[in-house]
Amino acid sequence: MHTPLGATRRAAIIVLLAAALIMSLRTAVEPTRAEDTYPSRSIRLVVPFIAGSPVDALARVVAQDLSHRLGHTVVIENQSGAGGTIGAKAVAHADPDGHTLLFIINSHLYGLYSDPGYDPIRSFAPVAAIAQWSHVLVVRADFPAADLPGLVARAKAHPGTVTFGYGLNTPPQILGETLKHVAGVDIRSIPYRGGAQAVQDLLAGRIDMNFGATSTLLPLIREGRLKAIAFTGAKRSADLPALPTVAEAGYPQIAFDPDAWAAILAPAGTPATVVGRLNREINDALGSSELRASLVKLGYEPRRMSLDELSLFLAAEARKWPPLASAAGLRTN
User: Fold this and answer.
1) If DSSP codes are grouped into helix, strand and coil, which group holds residue 10?
2) Could you give the angle at the alpha carbon of 60 between the alpha carbons of 212 and 238, nearest 5°?
3) Which of 66, 95, 320, 328 is 20 to 30 Å apart from 275, CA to CA?
4) For residue range 177-231, what is the model confidence (pLDDT) as tens digits?
5) How deeply is 19 buried, as exposed, middle or buried, from its count of CB atoms within 10 A (0-12, 13-18, 19+)?
6) Residue 189: phi, psi to the nearest 5?
7) How confident is the model at residue 332 (pLDDT cuts 50, 70, 90)?
């Protein structure tokens, strides 16, 4: 018995419609993963410090490389103020979709602000470690001391007259305050919105001393416009091999090794697949010879961590820094 041609066509159409229905149901049950469509637009990387600072420069180098890897622009957005808490709060309350990230340094965990509007650990998802570094202690070129013991002796002989400038809620602040505490000296502290402003006043002779990143201060030291008197690293700086470490100068208490590091966070609740991809891309970038060379040239030591390693590291640092800040006499705001 022969089946009419029309019936055959109708049966084929029914089969196709059924297959299409099954596929649509499967798509509804198994939606596209966030990682498969991420990123879908440009990414904001919030740097909670002023433009032109050493931390800003580090973030921009990383953002440029990451833009190429992700296929979308990573835009630096400086939101400075209140020791970095304004920018951190903005990211903590941003949509957790991976398109807003936070570039932090270890001062994020100092605990100097009692109610910043976020929890420095629970409000964020760890994404990637970036780098670590130490600082150079410099004084103005005509300061009457050539080394750290000489600086301490000058401060003891003239209490309250030596001035120290720093960016508020930054590693240089805790370094300077710790030095004052362990040396038992009265050095007047002068806060700035950022370290770059402190360096400008140091060059102008309006303040006497500053702790700064090698990348910023090395040209000024070589030009003779500033005088380097100590390095905070565990070993001497490759760029300034004749410069003693703070430990060699008699003050191992300010050799935190490292005294500064940087990392990237996302708002809590960001999909694990997105965070995982960012961690892989950033670690790959930090392993490339090109980015490593750029960071080393700026005075930074690249640092790669898995997500588990970074989570444990941040938890340990959150326990480490508040007591140090308290011992140094830094007040909670």
Assistant:
1) helix
2) 40
3) 320
4) 999 999 999 999 999 988 889 999 999 999 999 999 888 899 999 999 999 999 9
5) exposed
6) -90, 135
7) low
pTM of the entire predicted model = 0.83
Single-letter amino acid code for the residue at 271: P
Is the bond preceding 219 in cis, omega lying within 30 degrees of 0?
no
Is residue 130 within 8 A of residue 264, CB to CB? The reply is yes
CB atoms near residue 312 (< 10 Å): 13
Q: How far is CA 274 from the centre of its chain?
A: 20
72-85: b (≥16 Cβ within 10 Å) or e = bebebbbbbebbbb
The token duo for 90 is 């903005």
For residue 305 the two structure tokens come to: 């961590």
Q: What is the DSSP letter of 330?
A: P
Using DSSP bridges, classify how beta strands 188-192 and 209-213 pair: parallel, antiparallel or unpaired: unpaired
User: What CA–CA distance (Å, rounded) separates 263 from 82?
Assistant: 19
Q: Could you give all domains of the chain from N- to C-terminal order, each with its CATH number?
A: 40-132+259-327 (3.40.190.150), 135-254 (3.40.190.10)
For residue 27 the two structure tokens come to 């798509």
Residues in the chain, overall count: 333
Sheet with strand 124-133: strands edge to edge: 74-78, 43-47, 100-105, 260-267, 124-133, 301-302
Maximal CA-CA distance, the chain: 117
Is residue 291 left, alpha or beta, with left meaning phi > 0 and alpha meaning psi from -120 to 50? alpha
